[in-house]
Amino acid sequence: MGIFGSMDISASGLTAQRLRLDVISNNIANINTTRTGQLTEGGNQIPYQRQVVVFKARGTESSFAETLNQALQGRSVSTTALLQGQTTLGTTGNGVEVQAIAEDTLPFRLEYNPDSPDAAQTTEDGIPAGYVRMPNVNIVTEMVDMISASRAYEANVTALNASKAMMTKALEIGKG
């Protein structure tokens, strides 16, 4: 890993968590959206479907398990060898990337509102008359996810600042 590797890893985490926050915000904004333009087989409107972000590790040359196995077998190396790039142990963990934005498979909520234009007039698609299909978005789940994403974002900012401080100190040592 080069001198900017830790900053690159933190930056990938910042980007991923920002996208996660955007998707959560979109879910909250659409919590009452009963029409998306998509139709069921019966011709009824499909409500908004909650979205979730799926992360994956960004292309690593060796996995954590491989690194751990090497260390347990006594093949660990010195810090000097790591710094000189003489081993692949330093390549574990190259950040995170978004694999997909997937739709949540939880069923839609049913809400009794016979005055709504989206209410079922007769029992159709398994929905009793007078009920409206509502998005599968739960505000409590979204708020918990938002707090989690905010904390992860803050942790990446802290790691980025620590890397920056270490590089600054290294430059000061080089001057003296």
Automatic annotation (TrEMBL):
It is found in: Bacterial flagellum basal body. Residues 7-35 form the Flagellar basal body rod protein N-terminal domain. Keywords: Bacterial flagellum. Signal peptide: none annotated. GO terms for cellular component: bacterial-type flagellum basal body, rod. Transmembrane segments: none annotated. GO terms for biological process: bacterial-type flagellum-dependent swarming motility. Its main location: other. NCBIfam families: FlgC. The basal body constitutes a major portion of the flagellar organelle and consists of four rings (L,P,S, and M) mounted on a central rod. The rod consists of about 26 subunits of FlgG in the distal portion, and FlgB, FlgC and FlgF are thought to build up the proximal portion of the rod with about 6 subunits each. This is Flagellar basal-body rod protein FlgC. The lineage of its organism: Bacteria, Bacillati, Bacillota, Clostridia, Eubacteriales.
